[in-house]
Amino acid sequence: MGSVPDSSALPAPSQLRVAPLKRGSSIDHLEYVDVSPIIGREYPTASLKEILDAPNADEQLRDLAITICERGVVFFRRAQDDLSIDEQKYITDRLGQLTGRPKENGLHVHPLYNDPNNLPMANGKTDANIYVINSEAQKKLYATMKNRPTNTEPRDLGREWHSDSLFETCPSDFSFLRMESTPPAGGDTLWASGYEIYDRLSPPFRAFFETLTATCAQPVFKSACDAGDYPVMSPRGAPQNVDFEFQPVHPVVRTHPVTGWKSLFAGVGLHVSRINGVSSYEDQMLREYCLRLITRNHDCIARMHWTRGACAIWSNECTLHAATPDTHLVDGVRTGVRASGIGGVPYLDPASTGRREALGLPQY
Ligand SMILES: [Fe+2]
């Protein structure tokens, strides 16, 4: 099934700082369709509960994790109604554990977990490792944050693109979102392939981008906590994620620790505040260029039109994603529950290559 190239037939390059993982065949029996040649895979009928209950559950989860890292994002379309919140958390954590994440790391705790607008789950409980995404609550929360646009300003959805927890020293590896209720229309989520965006840079631009770092400051957390008079959560999924400054420096191009492929990482997005070492004009120009690469190359994008109970699991180490805040147009509310793992400190391995080069594909 499927003819999209992957790493399963390739020898692993041995000179890399972290040896790439090779996918096995334990989930080859699952029906799937690739969303596009470049990014995304949808499983229309697969059950995550059945994967968990299988005698070789770890083998299947490891192969699923590697598939996610290669394809960027996977969708489970069948409503996963029999999966508990604890099982969702377990899967998110286990995907990272089985693919070499630092042993001391676990699930992310959102800094604003104490915010009163952080809604309880459908069962009435809250969980520090579960972020309830609700289109109505987010509107109220954003109103407390500085520098957020209001409804009176022109719409620019380009600002929605981000990679989860980039404001942490150790950002997210896997994120797992299950949609519990959907609006009559809208509320789609989009993922862009950081691998392919990197590959679309010319060789001189690649070399330049690889010299760059970005500061990923997110002062809105402090301002939201001050406005609400509640403490920032800490630690947040890794021993390094304890500070209240939220201004780590990350490489603009990183190496994915599971595939060994280079990806555009901290070049643009909601959590990127400054490309370092360049003038402010150059900073603005570089980030706008990265955004332009995403918005003008929609073949690098997989789009999820949510159905109730459907799930998406993605690798934040090679994708950016963006929500579509259009549910107010149909008077609808979108509610989902998200768990995110925390990976290692991002790095660029000079011995790594782009995805196209690694797979023997022609340059774009
Ligand atoms: Fe996100």
From TrEMBL:
Source taxon at top rank: Eukaryota
InterPro entries with a match to the protein in the record: AtsK-like, TauD-like_sf, TauD/TfdA-like
Cofactor requirement: Fe(2+)
Keywords associated with the record: Dioxygenase, Iron, Metal-binding, Oxidoreductase
Gene3D superfamilies xrefs: Clavaminate synthase-like
Residues annotated as domain TauD/TfdA-like: 37-325
Family affiliation: Belongs to the TfdA dioxygenase family.
Protein name per the record: TauD/TfdA-like domain-containing protein
Organism (species): Sporothrix curviconia
